[in-house]
Amino acid sequence: MRTEDVLAAIATGLWRWENASGTVTLDGEAARLLGLPEEPVTLTGAATRSRFHPIDWNEIDGIVHLAVAEKTLAEARLRVVDESGRVLRTVRVRTRPIITSPAEGERDYELIGTVQEVTEPRPGTTVERTSVTGDWRRSREAFLLDAGRALAEARSTTEVLRVAASLSMPGFSPDGLAVYGVSGERLTIIGHHGHSPEDSAPFEGMTVDTDYPAAEVVRTGRAIYLPTPEAYADRYPATWRYVERFGRRSWAFLPLIVAGRTLGTWMAAFKHRVAFSPDERSVLTTVARMLAQALARAGVAETERELSLGLQRTMMPTLGPEIPGMTVAARYVPTGGGLQVGGDWYDMIPLPGGTARSEGRRGGRFALVIGDVQGHDVRAAGLMGQLRIALRAYASEGHRPDAVLSRASRFLAGLQHYPGRDGGSVPGGGPRTDAGAAVMDEWYSVAGPRFATCLYLEVDPEKGTLDIARAGHPDPVIRTADGTAFIRQTEGGLPLGIEADSDYPTTRLVLGPGETLMLCTDGLIETGGHDLATGWTRLRPVLEQDSGESLEKLADALIQAVHGPTSHYTTGPLADRREDDIALLLLSRDLAPARLAGGVPRRTALTVAQAEPERIAGVRRQLRELLHDWADVEQIDSAELMVSEMITNVLVHTDGDALLVAEARGELGDRRLRVEVADTSDELPHRRRPGELASSGRGLVLMEVLADAWGVDPRGEGKSIWFELYECGGTEPGASS
């Protein structure tokens, strides 16, 4: 049986294209597929070209020239058209060039190949069987879409290499992969698949001028295709001896190019023969481009992560030594985007003159600092580091909290001061140049000055006193020994850096046995679309749910409430969902071994100055929070009314400040509330009989009506007026027993 008969039986025709004469010879089957009578015929190049769609002919023209240059197989799909331009069928053309004029500078050749019809399904029909060519083009497009999506989602070099190793290319999947990078003048193996670790030893540290395909690709930026072992051995005899033992049959080495720069080489090795047709080369080239971009993105992401971790390790402190009678816990959670660094920080600073020895342990005064520099970028992190060092320096000099913050504000304002073009120098004190001025002008106009909120407190572990100075930062939160949590309002000033000279008044609190202090940045409160009010509502149950748990577990629970799996159930009312850094500090005073009768009291104390009568509203709010679980709501209203009256009397009738102490003691449902307001005046209050239109004089009358018990106690300097309320309804707690 003749070869022509076999080919005709499978609907495959033969053709010969002679470049020198410009003629094309077709057998009968090839003529039929091109819409001509089914008989051998010889056509001119122009006549043959008229039988194909012009777009397809332009495609094959480039493919043929590439095949001639590289002496490889040329393959393409072409649409056959009639005289009116209507598409008759689609054929697959496979040809191999034969050079007929080997002389230097001449390019005469012959193309000998086959023509075969491709079965294309009509729109709306179901393909019941695979077409002759396996519908390879559509499979390629689907593969490239999947590969592009998978590589785009890879976030590290390891993930990129894992995706590359799992790619299943349609019809010619490689079984061995290697990715080479460039370090100086040497190749480095970034990763490989299909080889054991010891297999890479001969290729480690290879210079870029080595006679090896990957090195040549790096030097030239052009792909190398080796379809046979003979082609490999002939072209690279020096390195063939290292490759022969792997038993591969074909190799492709493609450049990894990003932004015009060759980053390395991707090697795909095959155990079966691959002709590297134009379609196959197109797939490999596309994958190489996507792989290069994925590796570049992964490299940038890994650099950012390393920078982020380095900044965090450098700037975030560790907590100090064990403190007798107290426990400290801290957390820092960076924002989810960018470099994952920002301006939030915390610190623990031992203070001078506060070191004592007690049973071999270190104890004494120390300071806790928490703050937030505006922004979530590298500049914010840099300012945070400088500000943290300055605060440590000022605290170590022995300054009080108000002085520490005043100096820190002046430092931050001066650090960002830029005199503009009319000034004589730039930050750092160097001479001013036009080029430097232009750079600074642009930087200042875009970046602008930054401010920072901060809360600084000194702690005396023996007495439990806390001296707090606050610069625009959220107020601290106190959790009492019985598990009640409330915001403790303190005096405050402007954020650091806004004014060079700012005052920061100091507030003194006493942290009682079993009580816990929480300091945090606004990220803990506002993350998830919350404002300060709704964010506190979300955190309060977490603080109160188990007052006996360890401080470390409480810190984890607070972070989980904001970033945990269930945090999306507690989103805030705001439309935007803010992402912010979080810094958290917890300080707890150990509970005394011997509990007082009636349980641990719930207590708060604060001062209202003569110049700040507006703070009475804050006192009422804090008293209501202290009694948030009180059984009788009317008693809470009565307590607020009496406290307002008592403090107002001090501010109106004396020249001093009012000191309030409120304490609730006893078991739930059978508690006693005692509120004392002290002042430095020796004049005792007396009962008055105001008229109907009088605007004052009813304070003691209200006390008699609303309080279960009340009185006035003279002191050495001044007096104290007090009242008591009994939760059980007028009966003193414990009287029934």
UniProtKB/TrEMBL annotation:
Keywords: Hydrolase
Gene3D superfamilies tied to this protein: 3.30.450.40, Histidine kinase-like ATPase, C-terminal domain, PAS domain, PPM-type phosphatase domain
Membrane spanning residue stretches: none
Limits of the PPM-type phosphatase domain: 323-589
GO terms, molecular function: phosphatase activity
SUPFAM superfamilies linked to this entry: GAF domain-like (SSF55781), PP2C-like (SSF81606)
InterPro entries: Bact_Sigma-Reg, GAF, GAF-like_dom_sf, HATPase_C_sf, HATPase_dom, PPM-type-like_dom_sf, PPM-type_phosphatase-like_dom
Domain GAF: from-to ranges: 142-305
Protein name: Magnesium or manganese-dependent protein phosphatase
